[in-house]
Amino acid sequence: MHTGEIEQMGDDVAGRAVHIGARVGALAKPSEVLVSSTVRDLVVGSGLAFTQLATRKLKGLDGQWAIYRAEPSD
Tens digit of pLDDT for each residue in 25-66? Predict the structure, then answer.
């Protein structure tokens, strides 16, 4: 998961946020929810716990991106 501004193109969406979300989602295993640090920061107090898995280069994007696994907190 990632969140950000999108560009509406008819019935489709595009933009950097869509690209980042696709890259993060492609890293997830079945039944696993992975999020960007943007999502983690926006849901503080939500009852979710986050474990940082890696800092990775995402194809087509500059810099390194922190990837987190989201799980219900105990």
Answer: 999 999 999 999 999 999 998 999 999 998 999 998 899 999
Q: Which two tokens stand for residue 9?
A: 């193109």
Q: Which residues, 6+ apart, have CB-to-CB distance to 38 below 8 Å?
A: 2, 3, 4
Q: Which domains does the chain have, with CATH numbers?
A: 7-72 (3.30.70.1230)
37 to 10, 11, 14, 66: CA distances (angstroms): 29, 28, 20, 6
**Helix (H, G, I), strand (E, B), or coil: what is residue 20?**
helix
Residue 63 to residue 44: CA distance in whole angstroms? 24
Global pTM reads 0.85
pLDDT in tens, 12-28: 999 999 999 999 999 99
* Distance (Å, whole) CA 47 – CA 41: 13
